[in-house]
Prior knowledge:
The protein has helices at residues 24-35, 60-72, 89-104, 118-125; strands at residues 3-8, 13-22, 44-55, 80-85, 110-115. It has a single domain (3-127), classed as 2-Layer Sandwich (Transcription Regulator spoIIAA). Helix 1 runs parallel beside helix 2. The chain is an alpha/beta fold. It has a 5-stranded mixed sheet, with helices on both faces. The chain contains 4 helices and 5 strands.
Amino acid sequence: MPLDYHIDHSLRLVHGRARGRLTDQDVFGYQMEVWSRKEVAGFDELVDMSAVEHIDIPSSERMKDLVRMAAAVDPPSRPSKFAIVAPDRLAYDLAQFFKVYRELDPRSTKTVSVFRSLGAALDWLGIEQASS
Length: 132
């Protein structure tokens, strides 16, 4: 899968790294595999898209489906943060669309922010750079 992840229990963080060609199937697979685990409920999330070379652009309906799926597993009593690192213009724009859709879903308890650099994302998450 071109979207690998690491779960850091001490930081309460899921750190995903996308690479190569990224499809909506990859993103849905990641969402289902990671966020179906009860032990990560309420964890912050960081997805770094710096190594993505091509994105198969999803339809707006497909993106809304992803948001609905993601928001459905957000624990209402545990707000968390989701930082997306997207230095490429297309990745950045798609991440911004995702952010807006996420904000519009009333079940969503994750605050999403999009960054051009990993350092800025880590700062926003309150994580020391050496921990990445």
